[in-house]
Amino acid sequence: MQFFRKQRISRLNGDRQADMYPHSLQFYGQPPTENISLAEFETFAVDRLRLLKTIENIGVSYVKTSEQYSKKLEAELRKLLFPYRVDVDEKELGKEYEKRRKDHISHFILRLAYCQTEDLRRWFIQQEMDLFRYRFHEIPEEHFQNFLNTNNLIYNSINEEERRIVKLSIIHSNANISAVKLEEMEIYKVPFQDVLDLVRSRKVYLKGGYTYIPHKEIVTVVLNDFRTRLSKALAVTARSLPVVHSDERLQPLLNHLSHAYVGQDYSIQKNIGKISLEQIDNLSLKSFPLCMRNLHKALRENHHLRHGGRMQYGLFLKGIGLTLEQALQFWRAEFVKGKVDADKFDKTYAYSIRHSFGKEGKRTDYTPFSCMKIILSNAPSQGDHHGCPFRHSDPELLKQKLQSYKIPGNGINQVDDCNFSLNHPNQYFAESQSLLNGKDVKREAPAKISGGSQETPANVKMAESTSSAEMDDLELLFQDAP
Amino acid sequence: MHCGSTPKTIDCKSQHAPSQRPVSSCLVCYRERTTNPTIRHPSRFRYSRALGLVSMSDVYDPASLPDLLPLYYRRLFPFSQYFRWLNYGGVTKNYFQNREFSFTLKDDIYVRYQCFSNQSELEKEMQKMCPYKIDIGAVYSHRPNQHNAVKSGSFQAQEKELVFDIDMTDYDDVRSCCSSADICHKCWTLMKIAVRVLDRALKEDFGFEHRLWVYSGRRGVHCWVCDEAARKLSQSARSAVAEYLSLIRGGSETIKKVQLSTPVHPFITESLSLIMSYFEDYALIDQDILGRPESVENVLALLPEDILLETCSDFQKYKTSVKRWESLKKRVKQGSQKNSALLDSEIVLQYCYPRLDVNVSKGVNHLLKSPFSVHPKTGRISVPIDTRQLDQFDPFAVPTISMLCQELDKAVQSGEEDESGKDKEGEPEPKRRVRDYKRTSLGKYVKVFELFVEQMEKSWKGQLLKQSDMQGDF
Fold it and tell me: CB–CB of B404/B386 below 8 Å?
């Protein structure tokens, strides 16, 4: 009898899952209602965070619709056990539902962690949108209408007759669609209120209050919809946060999660005053990431750095523990060797150094730049030394430089499978220091640096990690979180 | 001395001699009045009239507004159709009651958040206050006059017609006949073009059916889009619509204000073809843009280097705007830059395409001058424009309030002569008013308005039926 009952229950479960997750891609409209264990809560959240961070990184390296991007993302999805394929075999269905469930739950957990500030929200929405876009593009056309229906997106496909009438006008409205391409796609009729961005810029054919959107463009519409919904949902979530935070089991993890993104910004210096100025030259060779090493070298050689360089390097130095007095001394000593006399230094450059320590003006204590910031903002031009060498330099030049720094030859190759990724120059410094000062002897010294194309960012990876090291890495990330 | 009968809604300041044989009715309160010259009327013009010195002038004088407005609001303003419009068939509860009106009163006193419970209250208040100017605002979440009583944040503008404001001053850089507040028949064509182009787009591209175009009274036109979908649009949707309709970019600093690229969007193609039917007469002949030297310079400033010289030499050969335009079009085709073949279209658009103020259209709570409001500076009534006879519309033929009052006066007098003995006292007001505006130049404009309202009523009837079906009342 019991046996019988069990079978029935498992069948019911399967059906329920089929109802809940009819599709691998969802809008996350409804929050999950089941009970889960704390362990699962944590694993799901951490895995999704990993996924989103990967998305952020590969989004910087590759064009978002390119093959390399898709391949990398698929690999990550597969590794972390998230759904990545739309059409799944019968026998795989059970596992697939597990993945979809994980996808669903982890999304909602991260909402809790990322709804609190504007920055967090923006970041979260951006990565989720990129993930959505990728999955959306993977939906084969025959499944598409089904997807629209299951998500209540009322975009009606137009019939042959109407196609004939509007074809030419669509081609004239849209620079990206040729007649040939249009023949192959469905055309959807969407009320203009739902596609305001396209209407505003007049990039779409509009007739009788409806826009005619070829399949290729429908992703913009759906994405906008997704973004709007998510944005609203995050606002609502933020309002109910106090209740969530009152649960002591959840609060620490949620805090860690949101700080992991920020990657701890090294604004709170733990090692203030522990570095002496004499050590800097030595440290620059041993523990500085390449960008800072370059800047230091340029400073020593030219006795000068331009603004971008001063900002990037100056804040880095603050992050490793230099005090304001030390900083002033350091820069002054160097600049005076050049064309700047002491007076001028005190009048001009000193002010901006004090400013960056939060002692002037609006007293913002500026945080050292993360890798993302260095790569994406303020690209260096002629005469600059700042930026990211893995992004902003010529590959050949980079290779040469690395060779001259005595990195083992085979290290200058693509290393893909490491688990540790670098987000912040100060992180590099901290890791390097802890390594050199003897923590895990098994690990190799600084870097197997991925050289290669200009597209590859500074994925400076630590050497082979074991699976236990996987969790270690993550803990390192959380290490200094307040 | 007053006639002693119970005063009606306003105090009649004219004087009556009850015992004397009525020669005419007081225009304001309809009561019998004497033209006995010894009895003075308080205002200047009534005095003169009482003396029989001067007939009611049709030349508008802003100072006479206080006297004319009461008459206008008593006997001419089409309250019935106005209410039928703004009530929208009563489909949504409290739609009329939650509508904001704002009045500009005498001495520039401006009052906002006016609202009314029904047509009767609207009439009474307007006749009492005699606003110099009336603006219509949004339908709010609560009665506008309660806006302070409501918890802050809950008092929200919810719906309003989608509106557009085209002002002739925005075209000053491309018209030579007039500037700033002046208009003439030559530049009025720009308004005709604006109405044609925008009306087509609102109807065909956006599917809006109920569009009311109104002459602003001085130098522009307004459009009221009254479809339900339009009234429910959000601010960002309104601004998207306005941006879609905008082709002129840049202010006084920008020389070339229109940039086109291939493919050319069907909206632009349609708009251009409408404009071209006016272009030769308007721009080449009336404005003579390639004849007058300053104007020629301005056009040449829009040309790229590679065709500039040849064009200049063409202009030595040809002296009329028409011929020069032909030669310019040929040159444009020879241009080497990307999209240079679109240059002549860009010039046409820069000189003729409608210039609308996005900010007016954007705000859900934006207040816009009401149709049938008087323009205090010109005295002209903001009358609806019959788009079926757009080319015949003459802004200078639009009646002023003084003209209307004079017409009314004449009509009443002649009416009384014809129907001597017939007592008009007993007639109910609305009926009298219907006869009244029909006797004046306002009549034909009210007709346009009436048709507009009737068209909308057809759509509400359907809705009301649906509603009552659902509620089960039969």
Answer: no
